[in-house]
Every structure is written in structure tokens, then in C-alpha cells.
Hints:
By secondary structure, this protein is of the alpha/beta class. It folds into four domains: 1-50, Alpha-Beta Plaits; 71-229 and 374-477, Rossmann fold, CATH 3.40.50.200; 231-368, Glucose Oxidase, domain 1; 531-631, Immunoglobulin-like (Sandwich), CATH 2.60.40. Its main location: secreted. Keywords: Hydrolase, Protease, Serine protease, Signal.
Amino acid sequence: MPFSNCSTLSAKESLIYSYGRSFNGFAAKLTDEEVTKFSETEGVISVLQNHKLKLHTTRSWDFMGLTRGKLGSPQEGDVIIGLIDSGIWPESDSFNDEGLSSPPSKWKGIMPSKIIGARYYNSDNIYDINDFKSPRDSYGHGTHTSSTAAGREVAGASYFGLAEGTARGGVPSARIAMYKIEDPIAIGSFHAMKNDILTSCSAGNLGPEPLTVSNYAPWILTVAASTIDRKFVAQAVLGNGQVYTGLSINRFDLNGTSFPLIWGGDAANYSAGANSEISKNCLNGTMNSYKVRGKIVFCETVWDGTGIILANGVGTIMAVADSSIIDFADNFPLPATLISREDGLKVLDYIRSTENPIATILVSEAWKDVMAPYVISFSSRGPNPFTPDILKPDLTAPGVDILAAWAPVAHRSAKFHIISGTSMSCPHASGAAAYVKAAHPNWSPAAIKSAHMTAAYIMDSKKNRDLEFAYGSGHINPLQAVDPGLVYDATEADYIDFLCNQGYNTTTLRLITGDNSSFCNTLKPGRAWNLNYPSFSLAVEDGQHIMAVFTRTVTNVGSPNSTYTLSMYMPTSIAVTVEPSVLSFSALGEKKSFTVQVYGPNITQQPILSGTIMWNDGVHVVRSPLVVYTILPGSLYSSFTMSQKKLDFKVSSMYHKNGILGHKY
């Protein structure tokens, strides 16, 4: 299509990329006038503005039960995990080609190796000074996520001696295709689904506040972050012999040498306008370098440590005001550890009561975390801000203190790094999905997603006060997901019906589908209770009674002749009836439908009520959570304008993609 009011030369200069695989389109630099004219041109489905996205910042596979002796089927090498991320460091041992079979014949790329595809796209042509104008990773994030999902086994991997062992991904023989992209097309995940590609996405790192979950489109697998049974601690040893244990990934060895210890409040940079109340937090520019030089500083908040470095300090002991918020280890540019507020008061008392207080900070150690798994504080929480009747996140996966490959140019020549975030949990879900895909290459994205949700481990509700709003259906369980018994399948037509029920009309629907034959004939918005989703969510407006009827259909993928009986656990305040209560199958692929009726009294300001529906044939347990909670009157359809909801929905549907073919940080 020619550019309006442009010469052939200017059209070529404006065109950036052309796309023709999953949909037909292009990226171009256009004026506002040109955007308007294109939007009104026949044959143009939509014109979307470029968006820059933010990063959602290996014991883990063994922790999930996917040990080295239980790696995937021979078809694993035919599975491709595509990642949209910061690039990849191809020389990493995690991506070596030794012993790999030929690439899958379906692949149209040009690289016959472990990394069978690598592209980069930068429409702005603006690069960081340290970035490469290629798919090569200068940040490390993409290298980390791709090796987590599909890295080869690397013995002796560690981060400066921490977490030493064999690093590997969940599907070490799967192929990797890396797309270094800053401006993805928002509707890509829907088109991926149409092409039998499951897209998994990080839930976001804005927790523990409610309504912060992102990537809530129902065709996406939305992944929260939880802990594994290993944590990193660094101990602070005071001159009086007291030892305080804190969280930190501290690789700096002070060799047991003690240094003078000072409270940040006693080292205010008055010339810069600071005082004791300000400098106690040790922020940049607030510290008196004459007093801090050569000392360890006790700070009353958590910061990145640069304030101490700029003042020539040796290290820092930081007190956490709320231990439930800072519940994971982090890296700092100097010796550091994060202790509890209670221990911080003891350190401050020692400083104030001792003439020459001293301290040292020890190198970190790996300790067993007997409380794992629990959802980490930063993991974004539900409920779903767009569609209250779809429970999000879908499940949780390891995303805390994960060791994986790294770009050595990004951090002190390290080949491996330990970082945390839902971006770390997401590739675990992608690797697990690839594991199931290798065993069942003909399963749909919805079937694979359903298998992981219904086979998930049950999370301990006592450790996660937000319940399913924190962890969805539970903790991912790849071994069980290979044989789930029943699946809740869904097609493009099902998702179109869902969108129409959410208030989309034919025009706005086509912005998502990219198909001029798509249409909506729904007269007004409705509930999402009939979407064949593997979980159940009922949002009740304040003052209304509990009432809903869900319709579901399951497909038999277990034993040809099988009978599933119903069992439930529900809160006493709600009544649930499932009809029928027995599902009998005589063939694989056979489908059976059932209804779930939920009733209860009028409720107001009700936190999440949580129950479970289970189908059991003696071999398989197909488990689905059911949640009931209250929302403000009128917020089902009017919390945003429909145009704003449509925009938010489209944009978020591509955030943090990490799927069997698709990862976005």
C-alpha cells in the first residue's frame, strides 16, 4: 500500500519493518495526519502507536520435580521457544550445540544450531552506549531468561561461588529463537494463539498491592513469582560478638576484617542541605564523606548502596522497615546485608552505647528455605483489573534468586547471575509448557495452559494471605501436567465470543483479530462465566447476593475408558451445585459438559473467598479454584471507559511475553 501524500523515496525512508508471517502489516514513521488517513483507509484493520516496555524484574527445576533423570521426550528438540527480550549471548555454555539433532523441518530460519533464530528490531534507531546493534545481549536479561527455559547443562556454574552446581533449563534440547525488540505489536499474542503458539507472560512486579496484575488476556498464561527452597543470606558481625542474619547476595569478601561502624544519621552532609533525619536513610548526596570514609554504615532504609560508595564507605547494614516487603536477596555494589527492623534497633543501640563500634559483613551463604514455596512480595496481585470474572494470575513458578546464564559484558564478566522477578518465573512456565508440548505436539495452547493450571501443586494459604489473587491455580507442576486427565480447551471463536461479551463491537474486535470477517452481535456487555476457562471467578457488587452459573466443557486426554467423580471444598458461606456430578468417557478426545451453580447471601466488602472443584478418576485429579469476592457497585463495566479498557487490554496483552513461542520482558 502506498503512503498517502508521500513520494516513493519518502515512503521507503518511512518504512521500518514489514511483517507477513502471522499477520500482514508494517512499522513506519508517520505524521499524525498520515496516521489519520491510514486509519480511514479501506483494508487497514488498525494503526497502533509504538510503545516502549519495562523489564519485569538453578535449583528451581529440581525443586519443581523436573530432575535431570526426568527430562523430556525425544521430540523435545522439535520444540522452539521464542523469546522477545534484551537479546542473547550466543557464546554462553548454556547454548552449546553439542549432541543436538537437526533443527525441526518446520523452522524457516537460517541458523542450524541451539539458537536457531536471532533478530533485532529498533525502530527508533536509538541505542544505549553499551548496546549492540545486533541480537547480542548487552544487558543480560534475555540471556538469563532463555537459559532458564531451555539452557543446556553446564556443570560448575555459580555466581562468584554462590549457588554452585549444574545449571540447566527445563527443556535443554529445545531450540531458542531470540527477538531483541523494543516495540512489539500489542495484538501479537492473539495471533500467536491463532497459530497454535502459547504465550506465557509475567504477572508483573508491582506487588503486593491488589489489582496490579498485568497481562490478563485469557489466551495468555499469566505467571506469578514464588520462592524455591534456597535463600541467600549475609551475616553482619558486630564488635560485641552479636551476629545478625540478613538477606543479600554479597560476593565481597572482607576476610573477617572489622571496620568502624557509624549510623547514617551521624554522618549528615549539612553542606548539601541534609540533616540527621535525611542522612539516616543513606541516600545519594546526603552523606558526609569525611565521616563515612573507611566505615560500614548502618542505614534505616533499603537503598542501592551508591550513597555509601560515593561517600567512600566500605559497606552497609540496612534495616528493613517491613520485612514482608523485602523478602528476597539482591545484589549491591559493595558489602551489604538487609536485616529486620528489630535487629536494626539492636545495631543502633550498640552504636550509641559503644565508644568505638565496629562490624564486618560476611560473604553470602546459601541456606535452605523450609517455608518455600510462597509468593514473593513483589509479584503483582489480582484481582483481574479488566475482567473480574477471569482469575489472574493463572499460576505461580520459581522467580526468586534464580541462577542462569548472563551476558559477561553486563556485570563484571560474570557468565552466570542470580536475579529475581516475574521475568524469572515466566521462562520456567515457558520451559514447562515446552516440556508438555514435546509430549503432546498436537495439543492446542489452551489445552497446554489448562494442563498446567489443573495439575498445579496446592499452595499453602497460610503463607499467602492474598490466596488465589497471589498464586492463581497453584504452583506449576510440569511432570503432572504431561498427564492431566482432562483439559479445558478453547479456540479463537471462544475468545472472540469473550471479547464481544466484554463490550467489544465489530470495529474494535477487528483491532484484535486482524480479520475483517470477525464480528460481534452482542447487544450489551455480559459476564465471562461461559468462557471455557480452567478456573472460576465470581465478582459480586457490594450489597448484592452471590449468584452465578458457569458452563464448562472438558476433553478426555487420559484413559479412554474413565469415570470422573466430583469432589469439592467450599467455604460455608456459599453453596455450590455441579451438574452432572459424574463424567463418564469411552474414548480419548471425547468431550463432556457440566454446569457450576454458585449461590450465597448478600455480601459487602468481602475479601476473597476460596474453594476448589475437583474431578477424580482414581488416577488423575483435575483441580480448579473457585473464588468469590466483592467489587464496587457499577465497576463491572464502568471502572474504565470502554475505549480506555480496550486500549489497556490491547497493550498489556503483549507485555512480558514468554511462551512456547514468545517471551517479552
